[in-house]
Design brief:
alpha/beta; 7-stranded mixed sheet; disordered N terminus
Amino acid sequence: MADKGARGSSAAAEHAPLAVTWLGHATALIELDGTRVLTDPILRNRVGPLRRIGVRPRRALLDEIDAVVVSHLHADHADPPSLRMLGATRVFGPRGSRRWLASRGVTHAEELAVGEEIELAGVSLRATPALHDARRWPLGPAAPPVGFVLEGSQSCYFAGDTALYPGMAELAGHIDLALLPVWGWGRTVGPGHLDPVTAARAARLIAPRVVVPIHWGTLAPVWRVRHSGDAALPARRFADLVASQAPDVETRLLAPGQRTELAPRSRGATVETA
């Protein structure tokens, strides 16, 4: 775990903007009050039959990570080689994931069930429900998927993979920035996923200040890499639907590697890219 003193987790850090850098698919770097959390890291150019069609994450962005969260054990979210690249960084996954991760060299994983919460240097990390297939195919374990809320001076919700469910409304009034999946890597999305229509409904239920669409335009089956078409279409469709259905929610479309900041309410919001 990184030295907080060296990074200056002072009162100034506690009032710094909430920042998110989207690294592609469900991988995002969340920076809040001096704490850096990485979600569902896919850091390689290929995972099984899927190949990266977006920009690979810059290694410098992966330094001084305080914690990694893994929402579920599907191959495009839980990739042991990517997790091993991060060294001894703390990893938090759902109940039932620790033994499987340890058997693949990720020996420092911990588990959180829905509703459980831990503290990370003054920032809280809480597991939230997710409606998604728990099994890792073909012979892997079953670990009930979760989302996560990181909360300090502001709050960020990472949905992982989930279908729409009414309980999302319980987050309303508590989330500053939401990371919502809006597509996947195939021609369609199956059960247990959000598409632009249902993700826009989720944004309306959760009512964050800002929503960033993720889980699109990053991976494709190797036989379709040259025919991936307009990879950003689902994200643009989502943005249009949010604008019409939840006009108080601001959508920010990021390309892989881009960063956005959300200042505390009293200071207004800014966006910057890298």
